Amino acid sequence: MAVIEAARITRAPLLTLSAVGINWGALASFMPDIKAAVGASDVEMGAALLAPAFGSVLAMSVAPRYGRALAGWALPLAGIGIAVAVSLPAFPGTVAALALALFFTGFAVALADMTANVRIAQLEARKGRHLQSVNHAAFSLFFGTTALGVAFARLAGLSHREVMPVLAVVALGVILAGWDRRPLPPLDDEGDRARPATAPWGVVLLGGTILFAGFIGENATEAWSALHIERTIGGAPGEGSFGPALLGFVMFGGRLGGQVLAARIGETRMILASAVLAALGALVIAAAPTKAVVLAGVAVLALGVAVIVPATNSILGRAVSDAARPAVIARAWMMGLVGFFVGPAMMGGLAELWSLRVSFMAVALLVLLIVPATVKLSARAPAHGQR
Predict the structure, then answer these.
(1) Separation between Cα atoms, residue 27 and residue 87, nearest integer Å
(2) Residue 189 included in any domain
(3) Lowest mean pLDDT among 3-7, 225-229, 244-248, 300-304
(4) How far apart are CA 133 and CA 261, in angstroms?
């Protein structure tokens, strides 16, 4: 019941994040085809995957002002941008054109992602409860479902140029189903005045570090697990897409569990245990001798990274006042999204120099940065109920 009630309260941002999942599920699963279509090497593909990072950072910088200016219209209008963005990587024929398309995809999707996450954090402040995990579970469900559908589409011989425009229409339908332009009610919380009214850089840097490492673990696996299965292990074309699909489905289950677990043990303990689990999963992927072991490693990593981002959002939201919350989350996510896109680029560079096995070992080390950063950040924010 707690999951269903949380989903009801956050229907609009939940469906926006679902559309975000369609975008990244399609992109991750079609990565081998997109890479082949533009004739990119590992290094060139890694460089192209930096383009959406620049678009995302630009979106993060304007998101707080965008949200204030458009109020209730901010979320639905940003969601429409996702529908446009989903189809953009289907058309380029060169690495440069792909980078340009990914820049606009990164901007549109990050603007919607940030607007949704800020709204969830504001709703958490008004309801006094953890709501982030169920929303990010919806992202993972749609990511996994999209990746699974793409896997079967690829096995059937369909190309990314045929499938991605169809997925763009599906994303638009999801956004329209969650259409809600009502503004949030005022916050009635006496403790809000005691929290910082501006964005303290200590909180931003700690939260950004956690998000940076968490996103590296998540997106590096999204972007390169398909190639790892098909190239390093020797899987057939199409089989690699089961890697991103499994990642999405396990993260969906982990985040649903996190929605319940956060109320019992708190976000801090949940993040600490998850970081260790994610690092272990990355090491299993790196050492895996078969497709089955790779998929087992993906499942362990997915269970680990599942709750890191939503739980960190909740801690960040509690650390500051209602007025400062959009800026704090946006600035921390600016750091985090660098990891979201640097992760795949780093993987490409290390794979070119050594192998994808070495790349996944590096992921394991970076994910462990979450442990000390989480301990310090949790000291800056009260637990739910201490408002």
Answers:
(1) 10
(2) no
(3) 225-229
(4) 10
